[in-house]
Each structure stands twice: as C-alpha cells, then as structure tokens.
Amino acid sequence: MQQAQYQLIIVGGGPAGLTAGMYAARGRLKALLVEKGATGGQVLVTDWVDNYPGFVEGISGFDLMDKMTAHADRFGLEKKFATIASLDLLGDIKTVTLEGGEALTAKTVILCTGAKPRKLDIPGEHEFAARGVSYCATCDGPFYRNQEIAVVGGGNTAIQDALHLTKFASKVTVIHRRGELRATKILQEKAFCNQKIDFLWNTQVREIRGGTGGVDSLLLRHHNGDESILAVSGIFILIGIVPNTDMLPVDHLHTDASGFVVTDQEMATSIPGVFVAGDLRSKRSRQIINAAGEGAVAELAVEHYLGNQAPDQPLNCSE
Ligand SMILES: Cc1cc2nc3c(=O)[nH]c(=O)nc-3n(C[C@H](O)[C@H](O)[C@H](O)COP(=O)(O)OP(=O)(O)OC[C@H]3O[C@@H](n4cnc5c(N)ncnc54)[C@H](O)[C@@H]3O)c2cc1C
User: Fold this and answer.
1) 206-221 pLDDT, tens per residue?
2) Which end of the chain has the lower number of beta carbons within 10 A, N or C?
C-alpha cells in the first residue's frame, strides 16, 4: 500500500493554520504547513489587535502573527512557501500538488485558507485599486488625513471601520443599499452620534471615477432611480468576505449558501480525513481567537483520526 509522506498537511498559514501547525509539531506529528504568501494571513493587514486574550494593552497584527509563527517554529513545524496547483483529497492518501509539479502526500489535511473581502464588481473598482479603492480601513486609513471619503456597507465591519476612519478623514459618507444598518446597536449609536459621519440610505455605487491622481468621485444611484455624483478621494468597500476556495474540491465538500465549508464540532468536513479551521468554515463570527481555537480542535481531531499512531519524530528533551 502507498505510504504518505506526511501524517498531516495544513494549507494556509493564518491564525488557524499556525495554531494547528503548532499543536501538530508539539504533538510530534509529521506535519507540513503550506502557505502561498507570508505566514500571518489577514491579521498581517490588521493595524492593532485589541481583543486577543493575554495582550492586555493590545498588540499590532504583525507582532501577534510573528509570535504565532515563532511559537510553531519553536516546536519545529516544517513549512513550505508555495502556491498549490491542485488538491486530490478524496482517497485515503491525500495529494497536494504545488505549482512547479512537486506532489506531496498526507493521510490528513487541514484546510485553513481563510477568506477575502467581497468586491462590488463595478467600473473603476479594479482600475483604482490601491489608488483610492481600499478593502482595509486599518491599513489605508492614515492615507486619507483631512480628506472626504466613503464607506460602502452597513454591517459591523463597515460601521466599525467608518468610526475608525474618522480619526483621519474630514468626512466619512456611509453608503448603504438598505434603509437601515445591520451593525450592532452600540456601533450604530456611536456612528449616528459622530459628527464626521454622514449616511446615504438606499443608495448604490454604480461607478468609481478618477484620473491619474486616483479616485475623485463616485456615481451613485438612489432608490428612486436618480443618479448623483459624490466627490471623494477614497472609497472603502466593506461588504463582507468570501471564502478562499480556489483549488478546493468544493463539489465534494458540504458548503453553505455563501460557499463557506460546513464542518462538525471536530472541524471534520464531508470528506474523511479532511478538516477545515478558521474563516473558511461556515460560522457566524470570524475572529482571530476562534480561528486559532478551531486550528487546535482540528489538529486534535486529526490525532484522533490517525488513531493515536506512534510519533514519527524522535523525542526532543530540550523542550
Ligand atoms: C481588516 C481586518 C481587521 C481584522 N481585525 C480583527 C481583530 O481586531 N480581531 C480579531 O479577532 N479578528 C480580526 N479580523 C479577523 C481575523 O483576521 C480573521 O478572523 C483571521 O485572520 C482568520 O484566520 P484564518 O487563519 O482562518 O485565515 P486568514 O487569516 O485569512 O489566513 C489564511 C491564510 O491562507 C493562505 N492561503 C489562502 N489560500 C491558499 C492556498 N491556496 N495555498 C496556500 N495558502 C493559502 C493565505 O495566504 C493566508 O495566509 C480582522 C480581519 C480583517 C480583514
């Protein structure tokens, strides 16, 4: 029978993947983490994390992920920085093929590929990306000091980030396609009381316009069909996130209506030996703490799945 090179391959090196990797390396599994960019995931673009337990004064996203990476490295987690060309996850032996052709095999896989911001898909969005179009208030807010900007969206992220952006911008116009916000009441109250925030209800952005200097205005359509122009130098599109499912066998995985992968409480998917942790999972809240927690749960479920096999790596008495 074919032998797998690894007991576990983890795909994605954000909080979920790094925590699964740390548990696996500490648990002496022969494990590999494959990351297509730098380890850290979405947290790398998070300016300041104020809600990760243990960091009483908060910590920068970069420093938090540096520590998570170092923690996994301390136990000797093997990592590969590569883009995945294909995944064959259906058999007992899973095959992860990298761009360039290298094929890696494992008995189990934890998918931790996370999610990315949803786009409006309107004219000008792609053209002015990073020249006035942003999906990350914490990353790009400081570029808009004393300027007038817009936020698109009505959920928690949009309103929280609109409030954050008032630290920099002279005016923030929240453009929402509905007549009321979905954000929590406490955020709504803060936003309604903020003198720098204006609201445009039942309004959609039809086009992002500008020139060589970047964005200068938005073409808006209101619920009665009227159109108007809003002069802004930046637009933050904060309308939710979509799962990173490229290369995943989505036809064989049970997913929800938005494409996030459904798992059981042990993070097991509908494919035996394939687990999912973090933002890629179907769930209500997407935070660093639950991504990390699910990474731990998934790795422990992998150990159970593997039947508590004898460790492949020698004992390291220095730890
Ligand atoms: C702007 C912003 C601010 C946030 N602020 C906070 C906060 O203050 N507190 C909080 O708790 N949460 C915050 N979050 C949410 C938090 O960042 C996420 O919940 C968390 O990062 C999810 O972790 P993850 O490991 O599931 O996925 P991600 O962080 O998305 O990591 C996924 C990783 O997988 C890699 N990857 C994707 N596809 C592949 C592939 N095919 N092959 C190899 N690698 C792949 C990616 O490169 C990435 O490194 C914020 C998110 C954003 C966008």
Assistant:
1) 999 999 999 999 999 9
2) N
**Which residues, in sequence order, are bridge partners of residue 181?**
none
Report pLDDT digits (tens) over 109-142.
999 999 988 999 999 999 998 799 998 887 688 8
Q: Per the structure block, which two tokens stand in for 49?
A: 């994390």
CB-facing half-sphere around the CA of 156: CA atoms within 13 A:
8
Does 250 sit in the ligand 1 pocket, CB within 6 Å?
Answer: no
- The angle subtended at Cα 133 by Cα 127 and Cα 139, nearest 5°, is 135
Q: Which domains does the chain have, with CATH numbers?
A: 6-116+242-305 (3.50.50.60), 119-237 (3.50.50.60)
pLDDT of amino acid 98: 95
pLDDT tens-digit series, residues 170-186: 999 999 999 999 999 99
Q: Is the CB of 8 under 6 A from ligand 1?
A: no
CB half-sphere exposure, 72, CA atoms < 13 A: 30
DSSP structure class, residue 53: T
Long-range contact list for 209-214, CB < 8 A, 24+ apart?
209/124, 210/124, 210/128, 210/131, 210/132, 214/128, 214/131, 214/132
Q: Look-up: residue for tokens 């998934």?
A: 298
CB-based burial, 117-142: b 16+ in 10 Å, e otherwise: beebebebbeebeebbbbbbbbebbe
**Cβ of 15 below 6 Å from ligand 1:** yes
Residue with tokens 């942003």, as numbered in its chain:
134
Cβ atoms of 215 and 232 within 8 Å: the answer is yes
Alpha helical stretches, state H, the chain? 15-26, 61-74, 137-140, 156-165, 185-193, 288-305
Atom number of ligand 1 nearest to Cα 138:
1
Question: What pTM value is reported for the model?
Answer: 0.80
Q: Which amino acid is at 4?
A: A
| Neighbouring-strand partners of residue 98 | 84
